[in-house]
Design a protein that fits this description.
9 helices; Rossmann fold; binds guanosine-5'-triphosphate; 7 strands; binds magnesium ion; alpha/beta
Length: about 240
Amino acid sequence: MSVEKSTKKARGTAACENTNIELLKANDYVADIIRKQMTTSNTLLINLTSSAGSGKTTLMQKTAERLKDKLNMAVMVGDLETERDADRLKEAGIQASQIVTGGICHLEAQMVHQVLDRFNLDEIDLLFVENVGNLVCPASFDLGEDYRVTLMATTEGDDKPKKYPRMFLTSDMMLISKSDLLPHLPFSSEAVIKDSKEVNHELEVIQISSLTEEGVDEWCEWLLEKVQQKQEAKVL
Ligand SMILES: Nc1nc2c(ncn2[C@@H]2O[C@H](COP(=O)(O)OP(=O)(O)OP(=O)(O)O)[C@@H](O)[C@H]2O)c(=O)[nH]1
Ligand SMILES: [Mg+2]
């Protein structure tokens, strides 16, 4: 992530009503520590956000299936309660760790930092943080990620980028998920792409389905390219 992008994520009006400026400053301080750790260990960090149930964990399972023989991938996953998502990811054969927020609607950099030592970062090429399912609060918290990827499911309706603009403004990639359901839903991918690009003209977009695997090749190629770019940057 460029410095400009990092600043855009770190500053600005808090999306979450209860978020005050001091908390955001403390968050950004820890996010920078995480960013440095990821540079030292050569690990690409992706912050995966979406509404609840948009298909984040299912996509992580599919991504693990595709990439686990090519690189070392791990996921830390935030939820209000239960370890269910981490259990699903471990079954997919990758390292996974649950952060139970106990009711908090988003992950903060401090929560991520506290559990980083559960992983041997020097051995991990690609680390995902699956954020709490919510398009509002997670938008305000930089987690030290290289890229923020937001799933926008076809089941949610195509009006979301303009209604929840901060999440789309601070994201690098939008995945239009559950594309297999498009024939059954009044959802226009063109409308969602137009609105999201009006919010953030740099946003990349892939239409994806974990069921039919539409877009999964493109998604995995994007990830492999970003991992490679990060590793090459360290060598230079
Ligand atoms: N049709 C269809 N269903 C999907 C797809 N991906 C996920 N689902 C279903 O959507 C539901 C929610 O999927 P999850 O992967 O648990 O979603 P999530 O975003 O991780 O959910 P939270 O962690 O609770 O926010 C499950 O019933 C999945 O089987 C998809 O590509 N197509
Ligand atoms: Mg999940």
